[in-house]
Structures are given as C-alpha cells and as structure tokens.
Design goal:
heterodimer; A: 376 residues; alpha+beta; Butyryl-Coa Dehydrogenase, subunit A, domain 1; Butyryl-CoA Dehydrogenase, subunit A, domain 2; Butyryl-CoA Dehydrogenase, subunit A, domain 3; 3 domains; 9 strands; B: 393 residues; 4-stranded mixed beta sheet; 4-stranded antiparallel beta sheet; 13 helices; 8 strands; 46% helix
C-alpha cells in the first residue's frame, strides 16, 4: 500500500522541499518566531505564489484539486522544517469548512483571499469547559434580521492574533452540551465587540483568548449543523497534523541516529551501546508505522470512505503515541543537548506536544476509536 | 505510608511540622520556586534553617550539623518535601560541604564551612564538560602548577545556577599522562577570579537554570586544592553518591499527585470517560510511589542498623525521576487545551497567561522534567551501575 506519487504530486513535493530548504532553515525560523508578529507574511506570500494555499481546494472552488494527498505532502515537509505559518488553520480548517459548507457567495468572497495569501483565518471552537468536545459550547448566537449576533468567550485559539477572519462556533439552541444546537459563524477578527488577549504557545506560535460582545457574524452552513461540520473538519485537520508529526519524527530519528554515531563516551560512539541501538530500532519502527498509517488515512480522506472518522481518530492516537515516544527518546539520547533551546530537537519535541493536544490527545482518540466501533 | 515512630521521633516530626508552618516565608510560595525567585528570596528559608541549626542534616555535629539520627534525618527530609519548602542549595550543603569536611584540610574547613552553612557563599558544580557527560572521568579542563597557583583552562557546562555562584568546585586534570580516573583533582575556584566567564544556556522550557562556564588562564591558589592532587575522582564519586540519595523525591511526588487530583476534579466531568482513565492512571502512579516509598523506608531501616545502602541510590534515582516525569506528563494532559500555553521568561505577573492558575506552570514543568532522566548520571548509566554492582553482570 505504498503511495506512488503522480508526476504532479512529485513536483509539489520537490518544490515545497526546495522552497523550505532555501528559505526556512532553523535559524531563519528562530528569528521569525522571536519577532513581534511571530510569523512571516513574506513567507506566507511565498507559499501562495508556489500554489500551496490553492493545492487542496477543488478546481470548482478555484483550487488545484490536489485534495488531502496534497495536504499530506505539504504538511509532511512543513513538519520537517517546523513551519509556524497557519496552513492548517487557514487552508485545511477554515478553507475546508468554507468549501464544504459555504454558499456560492461565501465561497466566492472568501476562498480567493485564502488562495492568494491575502487573508489568514483561525478556528475558534475551544472554550473554558469544552476540553475536546465540539458540542460543549456556551457562546451564544441570536438571529437579528439576516445576520447573527454573538456573545461569549473562546479560549486557546491558535493563530487568532494573525487572523483576518475567524470561524466561531456558537449556540443557536439547546443546553451547554447539546450537539444539535451548535452553528458556525464567519466573523471579521477586527469587528466591533471582539477583544483578543494574545500569548505565545509551547511550540512558538501565537494564540489568543477571545471575548465576543454583541459581535456580528454570518452563518456558515445550516443552523445546528456545527458539530457535524467540525467533526468532518477535524478529520481533515488530523490528516494534516499526522503528516506534520511524521515529518517531525523522521527528522528526530535522523538527528538522533547521526548524533549516536558521532557522540563519544567511554571511548566509543554511544551508538555502539546495545541498549541505545535497540531504542533507535524501536524509534525506526515507530516511524515506519506512523508513515504507513499517515498514507492510509490520506487515501481514505481522498476517497471519503464511510469509516473515515474512526480511522482519523485511530491515526491521531497511534501516530501521537509514536511521536511522543520518538520525541522523548530523542531528547534522552541527545542528553543535555536535547534540553537546550539552541538545538532543534527540543523544538520538535514541543511541536509534537502541541500536535498531541490539538483536537484531542492520543488517549481521547483511542477511546473514540473504541466507542465508534462499539456503536457500529 | 506512615513510619512506626518512637515517641521521641513522633515528637520530633511534630516539631518539624510546626516549625515549617510557622516559619516558611510566604514570599517563597510562588508558582514555580525553582525559576520565579531571586537569589535573595531563595536564600530566605536557608537563613531561617541556619539560625535554627537545621540547615545541614547530613553534617556531623562538630561541623555544624544538628546531630540527628538516620531516622530523624529521614523525618526532616520527608516533612520538608511534603510541605513543599525549597530545599537549601544542594551544591553547597549536600555536595561540596561534605567533601570539604571529609577530605579538606583544617584551613579549608575554617574558611568555607561556616559560609556554606550561613548561605553567604553560593556554590556551583564544575563537573560536566561538552565532551564529558555520563563519562565524567574524561574531563579535559586542565590545571597546570605555576608556583603557588594552578593555571586553569577549560569549559564546564550544564552548571546549575552558576549565574548566582560565588564559588565553583571543579574537576580538573592535573596529570594528563595518567589513566583518566587517576589524573583528576578537586579544585575550589572563586567565581570572581579573572578569566571566569558564565554564559547562560536556555532550556526548552524557556528558563535560565544552567550555564556554560569558561575558564581561561584562571589563577587558583594551591591552598584551594581539596585533599591530594590526582585523587579528585575519589572525592567526586563520594559526592555523586550524595547527589543520588535524595532523588526518590517521595514528598515532591506525593505533593504533585495531590495537585493533579484537584486538577482532574476541576477539569474533567465525572461523566466523561476520560475521568475514569485519569483516576486509573493516577492510581498507578500512586502505587509506584507507595512501592518506592516502602523501598526507601526499608533502606532507611537498614541504614539505621548500620548497613551500607549500596547502589540503592541508583534505584531511587531511576524510579524517582521516572515517576515524577509521569506525574508532570499526566498533569500537562489533564489541563487539556491549556497545555498549549507556556509562561514566558523572565516570568512576570504582568504578562497575560490564559487558563486557571493551576495550569500556568504545567507546560514548563512537563518540559523541564525531561532533564531528570539525563542529569546526575543518566538513567541508562544508573541501570549499568545496578547491572554491574548488584547483578554482577
């Protein structure tokens, strides 16, 4: 089941590789992360120019029709370079929701701005009490004429400080944990009544707490269809995040193997110690399995298989545990150096920690995998 | 687990508890005492313990120790760690102090011991080098005799809190031709000496705890040599044994498990299946702690009967660090999405941090705890020690 890339896919991969190799070395990234904005608009523009922001969209929507496989190819390379720019948030999450749920007018007014790099988006679904549950929403939306007015608090919204638009989940009916009463809204991030408190995330990105007071928003998709839409969106995001994690795993394994062959203690390279050899074999196996599962998931996402959502949870869990194991051991085998901010190993560790939290940790998803089986 | 204490020991335990409750400085109760206190603040408790005569439980009475029994020392350690007091600087009190009173000369004892006890001198440890981590015997920092001085050149690394230090105790090579372990000496170096440079190393949690220390033509008076020239390895091993005994960390783990339970209660509704999973995971860690604590008590009882604990220190180091890593990891998971945030350094109350107070240090502690299985002799090295010394492999 090894994916044979088409000529177009190979071209996409090699062009992303070339761009990142030339423009996204670790020191450049460090400067961007430390800058006031925390990301690079110029880099985002370069992604747009290369067509990366258009790649997954259907041709109908003005994209290149590359689908989930193009996302996988891009995110795998982004994972290798620890790219901080909000591709998942803007293209995969917001772009996917607009493409799948939007009216023709909404698609026309928003997708071109994503594709040409002019507009950045963030998805505001998490709340103080929501944990990983899309249905646990206290933010309220009420209808006023043709529009809606939103009130509430969203928390830990990744990329919000960079965003021009937000997609916000809010309750249009039902109680706080009622699945059927959640709807999605497009909100201008600079609209009156929105207040952001920004902060840095563990993996060097920016996020914000968002307060909404009488904020105007337009409905995206049908009223009460928010949870189902978010679940489908999460499946696509999992495909992207898994590919990113696999890219990071590969880099960690390469760095650790290399270090074990050069670092000498007790008169020999540490790679000659059997206990460390076996550890690195297990890291290699973890990478192979994660890579295979990543491909399997992306093929299923492309085909839109019925058991897709369960598989997505399974992959999020299995790849999450694999990534955690590799990250832990990479720091351990690098010794004190693995603990430093200076070396890239710790930064992969932190990105993997972040991926493992987003949309539910590996324990959450293995349970969901089991529950969906029991329910079938 | 409670000790079966004699009446005297029980009274001592109560005395320690009361003393902590009445005297531990409120301003030291910050979110993360290891990173959030100034040098002066972190010495407050040290000075209080010194005044009370309790600063150096391990030290013999003649050098300023309290003259406690093994059991009393254990009770004190347990009560202070349970109460979450910041331990006195280990490099001073636990490490270099015992080396000086065991192997140092009279003049050195007179000069250094009182200042260690009072907190006047802050010590750091010059052991690791870029090429010498687990394999410490290969240290390359050179000390060459020049009249009444050694001229020291080298690069020490992972030096904890060197930015505050007045003195550094160093392993230096004095005989380049001898076998690695045989040519090392134990030298005390004044951090204000010309040629000493400290450079911060920022770790993955964003904090500045460790440093590089560069030594360039540093002139060290020969009276700062501890014991005999080229016998430093013996003293170094003696000191590392001291470092590892305190690593079971039962009190700390118990305290963090308590906090974790509160977090799980606040964050995860009982009807969420994750709630039961967390309860089970926490219970497993509690059993790990219980078993380690029982092992520690068994070893303490053996020591009280005069038996040599042998490589028990390696066992405590391995399990103590693994358990604490598990606790910090589970805590980081328990706070869910808030685990994406991390405090920026230098820490300031003015900087916005999302989420409830109890979540604010979870990320940094999770990241920082990765060091535990690496430092003080990596856990791989500790396993080698047990394999060799206990199992005879």
């Amino acid at each position: 089941m090894d994916i044979q890339f088409t000529e177009e896919q190979e071209l996409l991969r090699s062009s992303v590789q070339r761009l990142l190799r030339d423009q996204y070395d670790f020191e450049t990234r460090r400067k961007v992360v430390a800058s006031e904005d925390g990301f690079s608009r110029a880099q985002w523009g370069a992604f747009a120019e290369l067509g990366l922001l258009a790649a997954p969209f259907s041709e109908d929507a003005g994209g290149l029709g590359g689908g989930p496989l193009s996302t996988m190819i891009i995110m795998h390379e982004f994972g290798r370079h620890l790219v901080v720019e909000p591709f998942v948030e803007t293209v995969v999450l917001a772009g996917g929701l607009i493409e799948h749920l939007g009216t023709p007018e909404q698609r026309q007014s928003f997708i071109p701005g994503i594709i040409d790099g002019a507009k950045i988006w963030a998805l505001a679904w998490t709340e103080r009490a929501s944990r990983f549950d899309f249905a646990n929403v206290a933010t309220k939306a009420r209808r006023e004429g043709g529009n809606y007015v939103l009130n509430g608090e969203k928390t830990m919204v990744i990329a919000a400080p960079w965003a021009d638009y937000l997609i916000v989940s809010a309750r249009t009916s039902g109680d706080d944990r009622d699945r059927g009463g959640v709807s999605l809204f497009v909100v201008d991030r600079r609209a009156t009544g929105i207040d952001l408190q920004s902060f840095k995330t563990i993996d060097g990105r920016r996020a914000a707490e968002i307060s909404l007071r009488e904020v105007r928003g337009q409905l995206l998709g049908g009223e009460g269809e928010g949870v189902a839409a978010l679940e489908a969106s999460r499946d696509r995001a999992i495909g992207a995040l898994c590919a990113e994690a696999v890219g990071a795993i590969g880099e960690l394994n390469a760095a650790t193997l290399d270090y074990s062959k050069t670092r000498k203690q007790f008169g020999t390279t540490i790679g000659s110690f059997q206990v460390l050899q076996h550890r690195m074999v297990d890291m290699f196996i973890a990478h192979q399995e994660a890579l295979s599962l990543m491909q399997h998931l992306s093929l299923n996402l492309s085909a839109g298989d019925p058991g897709l959502s369960r598989l997505a949870s399974g992959a999020k869990s299995k790849i999450g545990y694999a990534a955690k194991f590799v990250a832990d051991q990479s720091v351990q085998l690098h010794g004190g150096m693995g603990m430093t901010d200076e070396l890239n190993v710790g930064h992969y560790f932190k990105r993997i920690s972040s991926i493992n939290i987003q949309f539910g940790d590996p324990a959450f998803h293995v349970l969901r995998y089991a529950q969906l089986d029991a329910a079938a | 687990m409670e000790l079966n204490l004699s009446r005297e020991d029980a009274a001592f335990r109560d005395e320690v508890r009361t003393f902590i409750a009445e005297n531990y400085p409120a301003e030291m109760r910050v979110p993360n005492p290891e990173t959030d206190l100034t040098k002066e603040q972190s010495l407050l408790w040290h000075r209080i313990l010194h005044k009370k005569g309790w600063i150096a439980p391990l030290w013999p009475k003649e050098h300023g120790g309290p003259g406690w029994s093994v059991t009393q020392r254990f009770i004190f350690e347990r009560e202070t760690s349970r109460a979450g007091t910041l331990p006195p600087l280990a490099f001073s009190v636990t490490m270099v102090g015992p080396v000086i009173y065991t192997f140092g000369n009279e003049a050195q004892k007179q000069k250094f011991l009182p200042r260690i006890l009072s907190g006047e001198d802050w010590w750091c440890q010059g052991y690791s080098e870029p090429g010498s981590g687990s394999d410490l015997a290969t240290v390359r920092t050179k000390a060459v005799r020049d009249g009444d001085h050694y001229i020291v050149n080298g690069h020490k690394t992972w030096t904890t809190l060197a930015q505050h230090a007045d003195w550094i105790f160093c392993l230096v090579r004095t005989d380049p031709n001898a076998k690695p372990q045989s040519g090392i000496s134990f030298l005390l170096i004044d951090m204000t000496s010309p040629g000493v440079t400290v450079r911060p190393i920022i770790t993955i949690d964003g904090s500045h705890e460790v440093n590089d220390v560069f030594l360039e033509d540093v002139r060290v008076p020969i009276e700062n040599l501890v014991g005999e020239e080229n016998k430093g390895w013996t003293y170094a091993k003696f000191l590392l044994g001291n470092e590892r005994t305190s690593m079971a960390g039962i009190g700390r783990s118990t305290r963090y498990i308590g906090k974790l339970k509160q977090i799980v209660k606040a964050e995860i509704p009982v009807d969420d299946p994750a709630h039961l999973e967390f309860l089970r995971d926490i219970a497993r860690i509690e059993l790990d702690v219980l078993a380690l604590e029982a092992t520690e008590l068994r070893v303490v009882a053996q020591m009280a009967r005069g038996m040599d604990p042998g490589p028990a220190a390696s066992l405590f180091k391995i399990r103590g660090t693994e358990i604490f890593q598990n606790i910090t990891e589970l805590t980081h998971r328990a706070i869910g999405n808030f685990g994406l945030a991390i405090r920026e350094h230098p820490v300031s109350a003015n900087r916005f941090m999302p989420g409830p107070d109890y979540s604010h240090t979870a990320s940094e502690k999770y990241l920082n705890a990765r060091k535990l299985s690496i430092y003080g002799g990596s856990n791989e090295i500790q396993r080698n020690i047990i394999a060799k010394a206990v199992l005879g492999l």
